[in-house]
Amino acid sequence: MKLHYYIYLALILCGCNDFLEYKDKDKLIPKELDHYNELIYGELIKKADGGELQYLDVMSDETDSYVKPLGTLTRVDDRKNLFKYYTWAQQTQVTVEGSDNNDNNWAYFYHKILMCNIIEHDVNQFENDIEGVKNRLLGEVCFLRAMSYYFLVNLYGEPYRDKEQAKTAAGVPINDAISVEIKKYTRATLAEIYTLIETDLNNSITYLEKGEQLNSTFRPNVHVARLFLSRIYLYTQEWQKAAEAANDVITYSGAKIETLEHLQGYKEKQPLYNENNPSILFSWSEKNSPIHDSNNEGIWRPSEKLLALYNTSKEVDANNHIIKRDYRDTAFFYKIEKNDYLKPMKYDNLSRTCYDRAYRIEEAYLNRAEAYIQLGGKDNIEKAIHDINAIRKERINTDYEINASTETEAMQYLQNEKLMELCFEEVRWFDIRRWKLEINHIYQDITNPPSIKTYTLKADSPNYIMPIPLKVQEVNNLIKLFEREEILPN
Hints:
By secondary structure, this protein is an alpha+beta fold. The protein has 19 helices and 13 strands. The protein has helices at 3-13, 36-46, 55-59, 83-86, 105-123, 133-156, 163-166, 190-210, 222-235, 239-252, 260-263, 266-269, 304-311, 328-331, 361-375, 378-392, 407-422, 428-435, 470-475; strands at residues 20-24, 27-30, 63-67, 74-77, 280-284, 296-302, 315-316, 322-324, 333-336, 341-344, 357-360, 439-444, 452-457. Helix 2 packs parallel to helix 6 and helix 10 runs antiparallel to helix 15 (361-375).
């Protein structure tokens, strides 16, 4: 399969075959720089089947397993396909019924990486860039490639612990091919992967600053690249760089923390991810939550731990009137009245004006706060708490301020606030990994309702590293596999 024929197939997938000029039987080449817009949009930003990264929600402490009371319409268990992930099983890719449940995230993100390589190569063949389109396109693919490696290394690589460990710890393979190749890859080190990510993000910033300015939340931009850079520096424990990158986002992006006034109206009018939300830096892809409106007996729901954090921000007076309230519990969740449980409502497939994944300015405040705490000292703690309170001011209708006198106390506030603010935004599992947090999951079998089992994932468990997809294991015997442990319930 030739290089440009592969591009042709990708363009067909996003319905844009009128951009092509016939060359020979299997070579069709986009004629102008603008033609790569649709390829990036269709293959790298929009394309998804909805199931990508779905298991991140159930592996973290954002989600609980729940069996509804007897008398429900059907004794069907919605939890079967993700049960092995919820309990961090030794083998996650075989369902409880014994059927294959292949992890498609590997293929999904490596496809993006290959397409980024191809587009980067072809766009660089254009010499002129009078309107800045070439630089913008190169900036977009550098960001999207960095983002793809970020997800891959934090799913399938060892957790980053320090610079010395990263020099030998196993990451994921690097694919720098610009065409489809039959080749067996081996793992690069964590240091190599994170260097690649950092380089791509810095290149992305340089290209996007020089390139055409679209000012759209639906295309990668310099501000989301800086936000991701601040996230990467937290992972690699470069605290000063993390603070500086987050500060640049806050100072220059023009994005604002979504207001309490707007938040109070979200429950009935629109989800958090909407085109008028001033906090959104970049919106991409589609997503199917494992938590959905269901009449079935076994379901997933937001965890009691998560919901209890919002409840600590509620108080009532002598007449039982709420005098302090965190509006995230109604803005971020929707109550299923007929089933009496909540589901996440940051996005809504039926009333979508943004995509189902988004990166917001609130993360920049939280990233900067964490960096300040890690830098240490009284002044930095005060700056961290100020950043946390900047978010809480727009979430809680009175008495929102918190105070901390120690780094430990400030870090606990930061971890709780980040869970409350960014829940179901696919960051919590990675935070749990790097913070070495222990998680407990409770599971009740619908065939044996009185039986409740507790599964515990301990800090530094080998099960924080996801197994390589079964299909990849079958064809590549060179890639290192990690031993996972069997986690037995208490």
